Amino acid sequence: MKLLRRKEGPSLDDRLTALLEAASLAEGRLPLELVAQAREVSERAGERRNLSVDHTVAALAGATGSGKSSLFNALAGRDLAAVGVTRPTTSTAQAALWDGEGAGALLTWLDVPHRHEVEAGGDLPGLVLLDLPDHDSIELTHRLEVDRLVELVDLLVWVVDPQKYADAALHERYLRPLSRHSEVMVVVLNQIDRLSATQAERCLADLRRLLEEDGLAGVPVLGASARTGKGLPELRGLLEERVSRRRSWAERLSADVSTAAARLSGAGDEAVSAGTPDGGRLTRALSEAAGVPLVVDAVAKAHTHRAVAATGWPMTRWMRRFRPDPLRRLGIGSGARGEIVGRTSVPQPSAVQKARMETAIRDVGEAAARDLPEPWATAVRHAARSHDDDLAGALDRVVATKSVGAARRPRWWAVIGGLQWMVFAAMVLGAVWLSVLFVLTYLRLPDPPLPTVVEVPWPTVLLIGGAVAGVLIALLSRIAAWAGGRRRARKVAKALREGVGEVGDRLVLGPVSEELDRYRSFTEALGVARS
């Protein structure tokens, strides 16, 4: 069945959907009672709109002695309700039906067992008029029955008398909380026959003033007398007009949605005016806590250390094995191919580094929650710290994965290493050659032909040249390794900062942004629900 639409703004269907969405978004943020009330309104609206919309349920509600039962009988044209003066006589609600065919399911939903078919046709076809128990009854069950039905009926007709129309219980418990239901409310000052014309006008004016203070300005206020029939035609005409429009049920549901949305918005639904979290400061603090400066320094030193071991003078490079590798000391690149095996051995952050990290995370939450209403601000601050337990492991994985490249050996190391062995072989060859010549000379044997290079014998060239070339190559390689280490350290530092920034985005800034998006969606849904 298609719902009636307002002239402007979203349909009732859209508003109910938005209210339910707002309640879902507010779950865990706002008090459970408010969320439950909003869900209850959505469920109740769904049930009511699936029942007969050709019937309008109007309820006569009032205090003991207000004469609502007398008014009920007068409107029905017959004595259906017992009439009392000072004690409650209506214990359960009863219904008078004008053309009640098809209203059975509706009355079953309302749980009204006493039903009276009053008139077929007539001027009020489709009206279901309820006579409720007294809202100030000494019987708790009576008051609970009133509270239940006041939340369900389509049209509320409050019957008051000249003595108790200003009763605080009526205004504070019922009228004021229903301030958004003015379109589905009528107030009848009964027993007006007991007043003079002047007194009646004064009472009606004062009643209108009280209703205005309750937020119900514009609610129809009628003077009537069930005993004399005065004012009954006007009340009957007003009921006829409301029933004929067949819109009271939708207007009631619309008012219920507005009330539930207003209660949710009481916890804050203004546009977000949050500060901008300092992501750069957070990344710096997390980098220090992850030991990034230590790792970057170790990358540069390890590069030089390994370069010397690979390209240094073969006679001395073996000594490098007795010096610790800076990266392996940190557990980085310790696998067979340079991958991480388990956790790294990067030292845990110091107390100062922990304090800086915690301060940066807290500042992110505070900046994002700035100007947000409670408890949403608390939820945002909590979101910033929601993954504290995961930070250490995530940062360690970043250090491990982003530093793997630092363990790779450049190709030129192998080339220079091979060249060093060739130079070393030439030097050894020269030394052996000279040794043979020395032995021949010592044994007084004839000297073999000896090639020269600018009058310098080749064995001497090979020996001295090999030694000088080896030392020179080692020196140049060390300079290149130093420069390469710095360059690799800069690349690793950039990669680590990006990785740490991603961790900060995922575990700190991401949850904060999600919470802010949740609040924005909440305010947008409330805006639709209140439209």
pLDDT < 50 stretches: 1-7, 335-342
Q: Tell me the span between the first and last alpha carbons.
A: 22 Å
What is the H/E order?
HHEHEHEEHEHEHEHHHHHHHHHEEH
What proportion strand?
5-15%
What is the tally of helical segments?
17
**Cα Rg:** 45 Å
Count of β-strands: 9
The secondary-structure class comes to alpha/beta
Spatial order of strands in the largest sheet: 3-2-4-1-5-6-7
Give the proportion of residues in helices: 55-70%
Summary of the model, kept short:
Helix 1 runs antiparallel to helix 2 (32-49), helix 13 packs antiparallel against helix 14 (376-384) and helix 15 runs antiparallel to helix 17. The strands form two sheets. The chain has a seven-stranded mixed beta sheet with strand order 3-2-4-1-5-6-7, sandwiched between helices. It has a two-stranded antiparallel ribbon with strand order 8-9.
